[in-house]
Amino acid sequence: GESVGLHLPTLSVQEGDNSIINCAYSNSASDYFIWYKQESGKGPQFIIDIRSNMDKRQGQRVTVLLNKTVKHLSLQIAATQPGDSAVYFCAEKGAGGTSYGKLTFGQGTILTVHP
Amino acid sequence: DARVTQTPRDKVTEMGQEVTMRCQPILGHNTVFWYRQTMMQGLELLAYFRNRAPLDDSGMPKDRFSAEMPDATLATLKIQPSEPRDSAVYFCASGASGSKNEQFFGPGTRLTVL
């Protein structure tokens, strides 16, 4: 029978281009926002995080931007490589109490990098 | 190279059978998380432990699922009885509480319930 699943957003880019992956979050009380990368057959892998009182944070080839006004998070990957092909998840981290440390994941974006 | 390990990597079982999944968190990490990933629901948190104490298992169906940490080096997730709708990849992750946000995920257990 026909299977029904999540229709994940997809992004296809050429090797060497810059990629921008977007995420909308819901909980304005979250204290951290985090990006994870998941390659096929593997568990998610931490990329970068940003605290809620920051607008921008840079890592190696990656930059995360946070716009709290519109509850929007983005991940920019510079000079995208075929090895960057994966599903990218944004996650919100709970701020306190029993929510402390608890991550709520978005649905993910599939990034495909063509050589 | 410290890693979270999970066993088994793959499990095929019949409806009604008990399934036990095991996780060894990274030594020194005091938070352990169980997640379930499906095409329909994405990545969902099932249970969360800090210093071996369960903090939140609101994402877990209580009637058939149970999660425990018998000691600091072992976390278990049990399903009894299993149902076809439990088919998914189950991930364990560990982390260090405090300012660090990184959760280290294991390779997952792919469960198929026939």
Task: Jot down its keywords.
heterodimer, A: 115 residues, mainly beta, six-stranded mixed sheet, 50% strand, globular, B: 114 residues, seven-stranded mixed sheet, four-stranded antiparallel sheet, 11 strands, 0% helix, 54% strand
Rg of chain B, alpha carbons? 13 Å
* Portion in helices of chain B: under 10%
Find the count of extended strands of chain B (DSSP E, 2+ residues). Answer: 11
Quaternary structure: heterodimer
Largest sheet features of chain B: 7 strands, mixed
Instruction: Quote the average pLDDT of chain A.
Output: 89
Biggest interface, residues from each chain: A-B, 26 and 27 residues
Q: Estimate what percentage of residues of chain A fall within beta strands.
A: over 45%
* SSE class of chain A: mainly beta
Proportion of strand residues of chain B = over 45%
Report the uncertain regions of chain B. none
> How far apart are the termini of chain B?
36 Å
| Alpha carbon gyration radius of chain A | 15 Å
- Give helix and strand order of chain A, one letter per element, not per position: EEEEEEEEEE
- What integer is the average pLDDT of chain B? 93
| Secondary-structure element pattern of chain B, one letter each | EEEEEEEEEEE
Distance linking N and C termini of chain A: 35 Å
Largest sheet composition of chain A? 6 strands, mixed
